[in-house]
Design a protein that fits this description.
Elements (H helix, E strand, L loop, with lengths): L19 H5 L1 H8 L4 H9 L3 H19 L2 E4 L1 E6 L25 H13 L4 E6 L7 H14 L4 E5 L5 H10 L3 E3 L7 H7 L6 H14 L2 E8 L6 H14 L3 E6 L16 H14 L9 H6 L3 H7 L4 E2 L6 H4 L15 H13 L4 E3 L8
Parallel strand pairs: 1-8, 1-9, 2-3, 3-4, 4-5, 5-6, 6-7
Helix pairs in contact: 2-4, 4-11, 6-7, 7-9
């Protein structure tokens, strides 16, 4: 539950200062302006008007279909290390978590995951891990170079946290195409409540600017329902997305991990996540927008519902089954026991069940 938002009374919906005409055509207004006011956001997150929310989701879905058709792009996720130097209060692989069962994949194991994925039709590999100093810039560049040499028709996405501009440039020069770095919140005071003192909001913003300037297809994002989140902070997130114009935005519900300081906090909801997915599609129409594993974790049909709310990317796991349970950013993560082929074809059937098709190509951003 957002900190400054009460459960709405069905018989007395607040209008947040808007006229009846304004909120009657609210979804259409957001679609036409590709923008949203704080009052409009507060109303949409609180309303129990099912017809309005269905209109919001349908407009988002239509917008995505107009640009990308009925294609859902698959990315092969390789979680190659759960060591991390950081101590983020929400994350299960934070350095202070003595219960985490740590692991690192070798270069050979990473390349084996790519080989397996390529044979299954994956044309994007997402290398994700904690900020692990074991993987020096030289090692990362070598891994990226080998993947690109072996699979030149594929994209390589990195998601390995905050680095220097020089490091980002080196990875890019080695062949990395995309970089995912969730900003987590565009409100500095909120950022400080989610992270230890040694981490800097300004540095996170610097990283995202550097990535865009270097030429990466850049992804940002945030957790929905994170502790201390408010309508104000969410609106700042949406305005940040409008300013940055990232090629990708990853959002998913906050899910507590029991061995973290936020282990007993309330999880984010599926419905709020779906509404925000739709809003992001309308204010940044061309964005590549994942229906995340976290969304699938809190609801059996979460990823399908995410696609129907405007998302167009899914990321099945290519990591070795033996390590999947160990990459525990949050509790109760799904698909930890499935082989890569199971994940791939399960996802295909899930997308076909709602009228979409898994696209076996790089799935680049369409400007």
């Amino acid at each position: 539950m957002l900190q400054n938002q009460r459960t709405p009374d069905k018989n007395k919906q607040k209008n947040y200062g808007m006229s009846a005409q304004n909120f009657k055509n609210l979804s259409e207004t957001i679609e036409k302006t590709a923008d949203i006011t704080k009052e409009q956001l507060a109303f949409l997150l609180a309303t129990e008007d099912d017809a309005m929310i269905q209109d919001l989701k349908q407009r988002a879905r239509n917008t995505g279909d107009r640009i990308y058709g009925k294609n859902v792009y698959i990315r092969g996720l390789i979680e190659f290390t759960n060591y991390c130097k950081n101590d983020c209060l929400y994350c299960g692989i934070r350095r202070s978590n003595c219960h985490a069962d740590r692991y690192r994949l070798t270069e050979e194991e990473i390349l084996s995951c790519c080989k397996n994925g390529y044979e299954l039709g994956f044309c994007t590999f997402v290398l994700q891990g904690g900020e692990d100093g074991f993987y020096t810039d030289e090692k990362i560049c070598q891994i990226v170079s080998k993947i690109k040499a072996e699979y030149p028709d594929c994209a390589v996405t990195l998601s390995i946290g905050e680095k220097s501009r020089e490091s980002y440039q080196a990875y890019f020069d080695a062949g990395a195409d995309r970089y995912l770095l969730r900003h987590e919140t565009a409100d500095e005071a909120h950022y400080k409540k989610l992270h230890p003192a040694e981490m800097s909001y300004q540095n996170r913003m610097r990283c995202l600017r550097d990535l865009k300037e270097i030429g990466y297809q850049t992804g940002c994002g945030f957790m929905v329902g994170s502790p201390y989140q408010t309508v104000d902070t969410l609106w700042e997130d949406l305005q940040f997305i409008r300013r940055l114009k990232p090629q990708m935005v990853g959002i998913g519900p906050f899910i507590p991990q029991k061995d973290t300081p936020f282990g007993t906090e309330t999880a984010g909801t599926m419905e709020m996540t779906l509404r925000l997915l739709s809003i992001i599609r309308l204010i940044h129409p061309h964005v590549l927008l994942p229906a995340t594993t976290a969304l699938g974790t809190i609801h059996p049909k979460g990823r399908e519902l995410g696609i129907l709310a405007g998302a167009n990317v899914v990321m099945p796991n290519l990591s070795p089954v033996a390590v999947r349970e160990k990459y525990k950013l949050y509790d109760n993560k799904i698909c930890t026991g499935d082989e890569a082929a199971e994940c791939r074809f399960c996802m295909q059937k899930r997308m076909e069940s709602i009228g979409y098709q898994v696209a076996v190509n790089r799935g680049d951003f369409q400007p």
